[in-house]
Each structure stands twice: as C-alpha cells, then as structure tokens.
Amino acid sequence: MKISIIGTGYVGLVSAVGLAELGHQVWAVNRTPEKIAKLQQGELIFFEPGLDKLLRKNLKNKRLYFTTDFAAAVNNSDFVFICVGTPPKADGSADLSAVKVVAGQIAQAARKNLIVINKSTVPVGTGRLVEKILKSNGHKFEVVSCPEFLREGRAVYDFLNPDRIVVGATKQAVGRKVMSLFAKLKTHKLVTARETAELIKYAANAFLATKISFINEIANVCEKVGANVEQVAQGIGLDKRINPYFLKAGIGYGGSCFPKDVKALKQIAGSMGYDFKLLKAVIEVNNGQRQNFINKIKKELVSLAYKNIAVLGLAFKDNTDDIRESAAIDIVRALEKAGATIKTYDPEAMATAKRVLSRKTVFCDSAYAAAAKADALVIATEWPAFAGLNWAKVKQLMKGKIIFDGKNLLDQAKVEKLGFKYFSVGK
Ligand code: UGA
Predict the structure, then answer these.
(1) Residue 208 CB less than 6 A away from ligand 1
(2) In this predicted structure, what is the pLDDT of residue 374?
(3) How far apart are CA 184 and CA 104, in angstroms?
(4) How high is the pLDDT of residue 136?
(5) Listed residues 263, 283, 303: the one ending a domain
(6) Which atom in ligand 1 lies closest to the alpha carbon of residue 148?
(7) What is the rounded distance in angstroms from the CA atom of residue 310 to the CA atom of residue 20?
(8) Cα 109 to middle of ligand 1, angstroms
(9) What integer pLDDT is reported at residue 138 of this predicted model?
(10) Which of 27, 130, 234, 363 is least crowded, fewest Cβ atoms below 10 Å from its Cβ?
(11) Which stretches of the chain score pLDDT less than 50?
C-alpha cells in the first residue's frame, strides 16, 4: 500500500519505519529540510534504540522515502497518517494547532480520494474536526483514528509487537481497510467507532498513570508502617487481574505523554461537565512524589548549602534522551535552588538537559566522575547501567556515603553492606 506519514517525531518516524518494514511504500514528510536530509542519509534525529538499523534497511529496500514535498507525498498515497505533536495548553487541554494545519494542507494539496488517519493523541471529536476541515476539498475523504501505544526507548519492539491495534472509523469497511495495513502483525485487532478509539488512547495512558500513582501512595504508606513497597507490588502483581506492570514506585511518572494525557483527559471530561476526581488525585500524587523525595534529601542533609550532590540520570526514564517533564530535571533544579552544587551524568540525555539546566550544573562524562567528592548521590533515572556500576569504587570516590535512590534501582542489601546509608521510596 502507498502511505504518507506527516511528521517525523517519535510516533511519525517509528510508524514510517515500521510500516515500511511491514512491506508498504512510505513517504515521510517533515517541513524542515535539515531533518529530511539527515533521515535520507539514514541518520536518526533523536535517540531511539534499534530504529537506525531498520531505517537504513528500508531506505535501502526503497520502501521508505523522506521529503519536504507535502503535496507530492500525499498525492502518491492512498493513506495519510497525521503524526504531529499535540502539546498541552496552559489549561491542560491538547493544542490541536499542528493537527489543524496538516488537515488544512491536505485539503489544499489532495487531488484524489484519501483515507486520513489520525495517529497523534487527540481529544475525542478531533476526527470530526479534521473531517470538517477536509470538506473544502472536492474529493472524498475518510477520517479514521488509529492511536499509537508505543513507549519511547522500546518503540521499535512495541510497533512490531503490539498488544493490540485499535482503529476507530465511522464505517466498519473503512476501519477494516486501515486494519489491513497491519495484516502481518499477529495481535488483537479492534475496530471501533472513531470516538471510542480516540478515548481508548487517553484511557490507556490515564490508567497506567493511575497505577503508578496508586503504587506511589502505597509506597508512602509503606514508609509510615515499615512495609516494603516492592514486595507489596509483587504480592498484588501476581494476581492476574492486577498484573505486575507499572507498579514500580519512585519519583513519579514523567515524559511527553502521561503528564499531558492525564491532564487532557481530566480537561476533556471537565469541558463536558464531568468532574474526573480520580485523575485530579493521580496528578496531585505524582507532583507530590517529586517533592517528597526532595524533602527526604533536605531532611537528611540538613542544609544543602555548599553540599556537592551527584545526580545520576536526567532523562524521564531509561533508554531515551527525552527530558520532557522529567522528575530528574525538577530535582536538579530544586537542589541547586537550595544551595547544592550538582554534578550529573546521563548516558544519553546530557545534550538535551544542557539546554534547560542552569550554567551552574556540572555535566560529567561518567557516573564515577559525577560521584567524585560528592557528599551524597541521587539516582533519578532507571538506567540499568547505574545498577551495574562498581559501587565499591563509587564509595571510594565519594566524600559522603549517602545514596538517595528515587527509582528503587539498587540492591539495598548490597549497597548497605558496602557501608552506604541508603534511602529509597517505600522501603
Ligand atoms: C507511555 C505509554 O507507556 C505508551 O503506551 C504510550 O504509547 C506513550 O506513553 C504515548 O502516549 O506516546 P512513555 O511515555 O514512552 O510511554 O513511557 P513509559 O514507559 O510508559 O513511562 C512513563 C513514565 O512512568 C516514566 O517516567 C517512567 O519512569 C514512569 N514509570 C513507569 C514509573 O514511575 N513506574 C512504572 O512502574 C512504570
């Protein structure tokens, strides 16, 4: 099949590469010539493990093309995927400007009938809005929702091994046609009404975020009663109805999706006169988790003035260079504000973090360099490599011997045996 993908961010680029890998002819469009030039050379424009290999393979196979020529791409295709950003506005609602611009461009450029597929995370009713914008063009358009469920850092795997594919359409036959693009993927396939598919995306992210806030609240109770949140998570996660995933307590969820989508769903409900009380609490708990952790550090170190603190991790989670809504960034800022000097290291997110952190922050080229002479060490991102550090060496390098593990990443018994004073979340 011939497909255009508008937007080459996480969702757009992974979808373009993934659909090419499934055997389709794909034109991926971005209006920035420098980005297109890089992608044409097989170079990624963001860090995502495994994506470069598949990108180069499909460029070579001539199944994947990158272009700035919107009209040519669209008129060469039967399916057009809208994969642009929907960042949050001040009131929490999703900013649909980019989606509207793309719909307007399709209306202007299309010289044929098309199936337009929304893969951006958009509020319920956006399909109808896009349909309205496309009406100004004389051709026939079907507007379909096909939400994406991939995780950053595991995007290639998630695209090619999804738990399910959801397609929402006003006509079942059109929904099935879009579903046929994924024929090679053996998984659960759900064709729904368009509004239902749009809501499934928000509901999925909001539910996962709720699980995280729930376990974080349990962690806070654990600290009060002397229980261990990891064992509680294991104990409840073995119940198949609960399952063990997204039950890791810590400094709360970050990233470009959960914080934005939970707020957007709360706002969507609110705009329809429904007060989504549970999501309010999810957001409140998540914000509180970062603050609780910062308070824990402040309490133990008494004063942060003139203290040297090593912060390991800046990305919002492991396997990514993305720092959007990263708890690590908030923690660095709060500690600096309280007078500490921060030396930090992240395997991938140093360049992105340098753009937002202060000039005072010291960026080191290894975790060991960050730890050298530190009074205390903070783990703020769950990079597995941090767990594998030589902690005896870290202890030798540090001045103090206190670890604050915001991701419950380390083996408590092991580091305590080495003589560290270890603080984590919910234990
Ligand atoms: C999330 C969803 O998991 C994807 O299914 C969805 O497609 C994506 O948002 C999106 O809407 O585009 P992502 O933001 O890449 O994916 O990252 P996750 O792996 O879900 O982690 C989100 C945050 O939750 C991270 O800060 C992570 O550290 C935190 N987390 C995750 C926890 O604190 N505890 C957990 O048990 C799991």
Answers:
(1) yes
(2) 98
(3) 32
(4) 87
(5) 283
(6) 7
(7) 43
(8) 36
(9) 86
(10) 234
(11) none
Report in angstroms the alpha-carbon separations of 422 from 113, 294, 396, 405: 62, 15, 16, 7
In the reported structure, the alpha carbon of residue 235 is separated from the centroid of ligand 1 by a whole-number distance in angstroms of: 22
Are 259 and 299 members of one domain? no
Residue 255: give its domain's CATH number. Answer: 1.10.1040.10
- Classify residue 405: in a domain, yes or no: yes
Task: Give the alpha-carbon dihedral of 369, 374, 376, 382, to 10 degrees.
Answer: -10
Residues 247-263: tens digit of each pLDDT: 999 999 999 999 999 99
Question: Would you give the DSSP letter of residue 181?
Answer: G
Question: Domain tally for the chain?
Answer: 3
Q: Could you read off the pLDDT of 196-238 as tens digits, one per residue?
A: 999 999 999 999 999 999 999 999 999 999 999 999 999 999 9
Could you tell me the distance, in angstroms and rounded to a whole number, from the CA of residue 182 to the centre of ligand 1? 24
- State if residue 316 touches ligand 1 by the CB under 6 angstroms criterion: yes
Residue 197 lies in a domain: no
| pTM (predicted TM-score) | 0.96
What pLDDT does 92 receive? 84
Specify the residue with its C-alpha closest to ligand 1, atom 13: 151
How are strands ordered across the β-sheet holding 2-6?
A: 64-67, 25-29, 2-6, 79-82, 114-118, 141-145, 164-168, 188-192
pLDDT of 398: 98
Could you identify the atom of ligand 1 that is nearest to the CA of residue 150? 7
379 ligand 1 Cβ < 6 A: no
- pLDDT score, position 137: 87
**Ligand 1 pocket residue status of 147, Cβ below 6 Å:** no
pLDDT score for 230: 98
Ligand 1 close to Cβ of residue 409 (< 6 A): no
Residue 36 structural domain: 2-192
Q: Give the contacts of 3 (CB within 8 A, at least 6 positions apart).
A: 19, 24, 25, 26, 27, 77, 78, 79, 80, 81, 181
What H or E segment, with its residue span, contains residue 191?
Answer: strand 188-192
Tokens 């998540």 correspond to 286
Closest CA to 425 of 267, 207, 212, 147: 212
